[in-house]
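job 3f2a | input accepted
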Amino acid sequence: MIVRFLVGSLAIASLLTEPARAQAAPDAVRAELLALEARWDSAVVRKDLATLERIIAPSFVYIGADGSVSSRAEMLAGLRAPELEIDPFETRDVQVRLYGETAILTGWFEQTGRVGGRPYRVRSRYTDVYVREAGRWVAVSAHASSMPRPQ
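job 3f2a | predicted structure (151 res):
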């Protein structure tokens, strides 16, 4: 009896510790998430805070290339700054992976703009994490890492 209990317990434990496996995103889900990313990028350029508040969860955390951590409120406050102008940009080579009700998108972008009239250019690899809540995707975390400039 004890042996059967131990074997059964080990079998259950192995199921509980099974690593999550990425699922191929169905075309419709992939298209939905890519459209959401495009709306996010466009809203950043337009400083459309209402759209960003719908896309980004209140508990959102952003980790910058320098290791800084920002909340949704802090990120939106930074975008409100009148001295910041961001030119239109697109994400590239975006990969979509699903883990149940969680989606992880990775890609890269090149962004240009001006801060206080001074031009800037950044190239970043990014990871965006979305969770499906009440039937809709919301961003819960993002991270960007600087990429070297092409030679």
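job 3f2a | Helices lie at 2-16, 27-46, 49-55, 72-80.
job 3f2a | closed
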